[in-house]
Amino acid sequence: MNQFTLAEQKEEKEWTVRPYYKRELAEAYAPNLSPVSALNRLAAWIKLNKTLCEELAQTGYRPRQQIFTSLQVEIIFRYLGKP
Hints:
Structural class: mainly alpha
Mean pLDDT: 89
Pfam families: DUF4248 (PF14053)
Order of helices and strands: HEHHHEH
Strand order of the largest sheet: 1-2
Number of strands: 2
Largest sheet: 2 strands, antiparallel
Helix content: 55-70%
Organism: Phocaeicola acetigenes
InterPro entries: DUF4248
Radius of gyration: 13 Å
Distance between the termini: 23 Å
Protein name: DUF4248 domain-containing protein
Number of helices: 5
Number of domains: 1
Strand content: under 5%
């Protein structure tokens, strides 16, 4: 196995589908931004992707909730990819 493949496997293991704090996931998608900016960016991505927004709403997602459920994380990963 080459090193790139090992890195991919490690990344795959790190971002398993489980509940995440919204801030934790936002910072993973935008590590170079402040936590507030990362949260704003993630919120914008969700709002701009109507299908993603609708699927999250069907799970009971509310913009002010602080934790994404496992199901919500699975949906986010499907649309945005893993961080």
